[in-house]
Design a protein that fits this description.
Layout lengths: L9 H14 L4 H6 L4 E2 L5 E10 L6 E9 L5 E3 L4 E6 L3 E7 L6 E3 L4 E10 L9 E4 L1 E5 L7 E6 L8 E10 L3 E2 L1
Parallel strand pairs: 1-4, 2-11, 6-12
Antiparallel strand pairs: 2-3, 3-8, 4-7, 5-6, 5-10, 8-12, 8-13, 9-12, 10-11
């Protein structure tokens, strides 16, 4: 039997379009959920990067990237932040998230957190591609402006992130 393509009209066309949008991961509800909120911009957020330790001393290390909306108005944090740690101009490791996180509406003075996992130097599987720096370059999602953020330890003192491998894993942003 031969397949036939027929133009869709009326309610069937609307249903077909809705199913196609849903299949692509875009729905009318998603696009209207944060309507009216402007995207969060790097410069409008106060950033901090805090080291949190390792799993049993030899496993992945943890850190926490926090962004506070400095302004009185709300914005929407829609995606993963940009994260880069450079050793001079040559070596760098970038943050990478998996999938598409839900947009996070961020009212004025509110904060959100992105948990980071990375392989520290000397841990199993660390390899030879490592960067060690007291700061990271951060960008809000979909923003080209960057902020240089100092690395701090759990007590707020200056520290260095010592990460090895291809990337630093970013968890989905969530309200703090």
């Amino acid at each position: 039997m031969r397949a036939t393509n027929r133009p869709t009209t009326g309610a069937l066309a609307v249903l077909t379009a809705a199913l196609a949008l849903t299949a692509c991961g875009t729905t009318t509800t998603d696009s209207k959920r944060d309507a009216g909120l402007t995207p969060c911009r790097t410069a409008a957020l106060r950033w901090s990067l805090t080291l949190a330790g390792t799993d049993r001393g030899a496993g992945p290390a943890h850190a926490r990237l926090t962004a506070v909306n400095k302004g009185p108005g709300s914005c929407v944090f829609d995606g993963y932040p940009g994260l880069e740690i450079h050793n001079g101009k040559a070596d760098s490791i970038e943050g990478a998230g998996h999938g598409r996180p839900d947009p996070v509406p961020l009212p004025g003075k509110a904060s959100l957190t992105v948990d980071l996992r990375y392989t520290p130097r000397g841990a199993n599987g660390a390899g030879g591609w490592c960067v060690q720096q007291p700061e990271a370059v951060i960008r809000a999602p979909h923003d080209s402006g960057a902020a240089v953020v100092p690395v701090r330890d759990a007590h707020g003192k200056a520290a260095q992130i010592d990460a090895c491998g291809d990337s630093i894993t970013l968890a989905a942003p969530h309200r703090s």
